[in-house]
């Protein structure tokens, strides 16, 4: 299995959309280590057979667990289909997760259109491609 890791996350009203997107790109996603928040991970695994490491549900800390992967340099991409029309009680966690992606230069897609652009890029499937990681130790 690849050491490259991607995270799949979706708010309740976006889970079906993420599942459909995963099915469309399953062969491209298969080589990656996939992590997800709890319910989303179970949905993806149960409907695609992909191996998915499931963290806690987002509101119960799953967003922070994925954030820790980003901060530790262990996440290569985040596909987070969030629902901008239905605020969630853990919105500050969502904002923090998206902020960490910007801080550590991790590609993030919040919609199927952006996710399509990322996974169809030749760089996405190129294991020799290394994204530039900022050095904040200066």
Any overview of this molecule?
Helices cover about 40% and strands about 15% of the residues. The chain is an alpha/beta fold and about 140 residues long. The chain has one domain: Methylglyoxal synthase-like domain (Rossmann fold, 3-Layer(aba) Sandwich). Strands 3-2-1-4-5 form a five-stranded parallel β-sheet. Helix 3 links the parallel strand 2 and strand 3. Helix 1 (about 15-25) crosses helix 3 and helix 4 runs parallel beside helix 5 (about 90-105). It catalyses: dihydroxyacetone phosphate = methylglyoxal + phosphate. This is Methylglyoxal synthase.
Give a quick rundown of the structure.
This protein has 138 residues and is α/β, with parallel strands linked by helices.
Q: What is the helical fraction, as a range of percent?
A: 40-55%
Estimate nothing, just give the exact number of structural domains: 1
This entry's quaternary arrangement is: single chain
What is the averaged pLDDT score? 93
* CATH architectural category: 3-Layer(aba) Sandwich
Category from helices, strands and their pairing: alpha/beta
Helix count from the secondary structure assignment: 6
């Amino acid at each position: 299995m690849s050491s490259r890791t991607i995270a799949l996350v979706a708010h309740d009203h976006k889970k079906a959309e993420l599942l459909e997107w995963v099915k469309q790109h399953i062969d491209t996603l298969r080589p990656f280590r996939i992590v997800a928040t709890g319910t989303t991970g179970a949905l993806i695994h149960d409907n695609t057979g992909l191996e998915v490491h499931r963290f806690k549900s987002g509101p119960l800390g799953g967003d922070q667990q994925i954030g820790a992967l980003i901060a530790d340099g262990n996440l290569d991409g985040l596909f987070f289909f969030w629902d901008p029309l239905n605020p969630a009680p853990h919105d500050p966690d969502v904002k923090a997760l998206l902020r960490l992606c910007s801080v550590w230069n991790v590609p993030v897609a919040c919609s199927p259109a952006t996710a399509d652009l990322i996974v169809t890029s030749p760089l996405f499937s190129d294991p020799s491609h290394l994204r530039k990681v900022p050095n904040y130790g200066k």
